[in-house]
Design a protein that fits this description.
The protein is built from twelve helices and twelve strands. The chain is α/β, with parallel strands linked by helices. The strands form three sheets. Strands 1-2-3-6-7-10-11-12 form an eight-stranded parallel β-barrel, surrounded by seven helices. A two-stranded antiparallel ribbon has the order 4-5. It is globular, with a radius of gyration of 19 Å.
Length: 307
């Protein structure tokens, strides 16, 4: 799957992943009105609204970007109907040819980690049959519990030719409370980065590993260090746009081949119509506003990379 992701990045010339992180306050009124008319102001109504909202955005951007990243918490808040909307979103994105990164941040040990890995990336056995569960192409994983939490995912990645992105240096302001702590004189995120590179050496694609890393755009200097520590690791970079990251911050996340990183933007794209820059599209044109935001982001990154 890492090979396919790279092929799609090269084809679209857009190392961009759109975060499908819907909240009801982002959903235009006409979509909510239609959903509530059918299902009421219920969990089912909310789930239908975010599904229709997602579908409109995907229809508008699928030809411009290689991948999407639905954040499962935004769906789980609506209970089982929300999870149904998550699954419908995953399936629809894959029908459109997009690579799907499940932003699920799972991390546990033993049979629990195995179940997470199977549920999101692999097949679950039911009698003599086997079925895909949520069936994303990649999943984000928390390494805090060590190899016991990661190895079950690596096993499924090898079996299914899928991938994971391991949290290394996250984009949030308080990430340094743990991630920057010195261990034997070095920041913890460097040690985690070394371990990610080691895990990744076990399952390589043509040029990059199936085991990627998450490093926030809000920490470009740390990104420069981690790029050297993890030369064969694809880096998922959150924090662009709404969290303050800019194209100029991203240069050092990429390798000399122009690859090695994919930049995430969530509400900066999916709620673009609510920004002053794209307000002229209006609520009815929310999807077109998202398309315009993707094009602007692509140009910003290309300019920063000198392309």
């Amino acid at each position: 799957m890492i090979n396919r992701l790279i092929e799609k990045i090269q084809k679209t010339n857009a190392p961009i992943v759109v975060g499908l992180d819907p909240m009801l306050k982002y959903v235009p009124e006409h979509i909510k009105k239609a959903a509530f008319a059918e299902f009421g102001e219920t969990l089912e109504g909310a789930a239908e609204a975010i599904w229709q909202y997602n579908k409109g955005i995907v229809d508008a951007i699928y030809d411009l970007v290689p991948a999407v990243k639905p954040q499962i918490a935004m769906y789980e808040q609506f209970g089982i109907p929300g999870l149904v909307a998550f699954k419908k979103t995953v399936d629809y994105c894959k029908e459109k040819g997009l690579v799907v990164i499940g932003d699920v941040k799972r991390g546990d040990i033993g049979s629990t980690s195995e179940a997470y890995a199977v549920g999101h990336l692999g097949k679950v056995s039911v009698g003599s049959n086997a079925f895909y569960g949520l069936n994303e192409d990649f999943a984000t994983v928390n390494p805090y519990l060590g190899s016991d939490g990661i190895n079950p995912f690596i096993k499924v990645c090898k079996e299914e030719k899928k991938g994971i992105f391991v949290l290394v240096k996250t984009s949030n302001p308080s990430s340094g409370e743990f991630q920057d702590r010195l261990v034997d004189g070095r920041p913890l995120y460097e040690i985690v980065g070394e371990q990610v590179a080691s895990w990744g050496a076990e399952c390589m694609g043509d040029s990059y590993s199936y085991v990627g890393a998450v490093v926030g755009a809000t920490y470009p200097e740390q990104g420069k260090v981690l790029r050297k520590i993890m030369p064969k690791t694809f880096i998922l970079v959150p924090g662009y746009g709404a969290q303050g990251g800019k194209g100029a911050d991203l240069v050092h996340f990429f390798n000399e081949d122009g690859l090695g990183a994919i930049i995430n933007s969530s509400r900066g794209i999916i709620a673009a119509y609510q920004q002053e820059k794209y307000a002229s599209f209006g609520e009815q044109g929310y999807a077109d506003a998202s398309r315009a935001a993707v094009i602007d982001m692509r140009e910003d990154i290309a300019q920063a990379l000198g392309k």
